[in-house]
């Protein structure tokens, strides 16, 4: 496995549950994305994160209908190697995330995501897959650290999927390498 491939994700089992937040749903059944905040997180999870020195200040909720697939992207324009989330996934049986590297001489382009932020997009034919992970069910206390600074997508094959994706902070936002270190005791893969 290349260095980049080994930095895509880490699956975790956590000692406390994350309780799914009731988010407003659109009626059209289409993909949507909204911001969520620390005050909406169950107290056990806030306290546990606090016990390891972290705060999930804000994040995003993604609703994906079955058969939804994201375009290839990274979630930031600068310092992509250091961009990480803590993900909790409910439903979406068999949903998977894939990570890619850009082939030599191919180009990224700027796109706007569903919450109006500028990010980089990529054509699938310009990229090579480097890693994949089937998402684990957070009803069983599973969570995943995601490196969103590496080109990635999500493929949701069979049922609705709800994902809560959190930015983690100390005094400032914590990078992938530091998070991978902090969460090491709860790694399962
Ligand atoms: Fe992303």
How would you describe this protein?
The chain has a single domain, classed as Jelly Rolls (Sandwich). The chain contains 2 helices and 13 strands, in the order E-E-H-E-E-E-E-E-E-E-E-E-E-E-H. The chain has helices spanning 43-51, 176-182; strands at 9-13, 32-37, 55-64, 68-69, 72-74, 84-91, 96-102, 109-112, 118-122, 127-134, 142-147, 152-156, 161-169. The strands form 3 sheets. It has a 6-stranded antiparallel beta sheet with strand order 1-11-6-13-3-2. It has a 4-stranded antiparallel beta sheet with strand order 4-12-7-10, with no helix packed on it. A 3-stranded antiparallel beta sheet has the order 5-9-8, with no helix packed on it. The chain is globular. The model has no long low-confidence stretch (mean pLDDT 93). The structure holds fe (ii) ion (FE2).
